[in-house]
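Hello,

Our lab assistant flagged a job as stuck in the queue for most of the afternoon. It eventually completed. Since we weren't sure the result was trustworthy after the delay, we are filing this so someone can double-check. Below is the sequence as submitted and the structure that was eventually returned. Let us know if re-running is recommended.
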Amino acid sequence: MRHDFIDRYSRLESPVHALDPRAKAIALFAVIIACVTTPANVWWPYAIYAALVLIIANASRLPFSYLLTRMLVVAPFVLVVAVCVPFMHGAGPTYDLGVFSVTQGGLLVLWNVAAKALISVSCLILLSSTTEFADLMHGFERLHVPQFFTTVAAFMYRYIFIIIDEAERMKRARDSRNFRGRWLWHIKVIGHMVASLFLRSQERAERVYQAMSARGFDGSFPRWKETHMHAPDWAFMGIITATALAGRLVVLWK
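-- returned structure --
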């Protein structure tokens, strides 16, 4: 399996990749916060947020096909809203669609969920795809995110591939014994596999913890070189944050 599916393009060379992780995190989270707090009945701030995302994506030189593929992760949630919400009772006129009727309030909620989900997920994709995972966690630590969360995330990223490889080996062993899983009582085999994978993961975690404790691990990962904020980092953070907040505040003052 590929072991770089989270930050596959984090080693590209682009102006966005060269920025400090803290600048990217603050700027992109500012876009997310401004987006999710913007009322649904005003559309033009979302055009500003989408334009910021497109500008950053173009400057990062990431393949747009990669971005679109990753954005599909929110498609099932938007689809659920698309199926359910428009037909609920809401404010505004009702539009008849033959057997069903769609309310204007329901369509507004659908637009709200879709726009906020796509823009927010795009920001997270840009952040993770333009920053190596270890650098991103170190940036969060320097932003005073609790070390417990960054350490757990770092270990998860380091060992999730091993757990997935272990699950694939168990699946190949199961299939080699002519398992088909066509009937309900075959779920017992799946349950045994999940329990075995959990026990193996727990035992591995204990061995890793003992090995790292024996080597003096104190809960933080050492770095060979500390990064510093420079003029391009401050400029990127200031421009993106100010633009996003300006779009939100203008709506607030109206």
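-- support follow-up --
The delay was a queue issue, not a problem with the job. The result is valid. Strands lie at 94-97, 100-103. The first strand starts at residue 94 and ends at 97.
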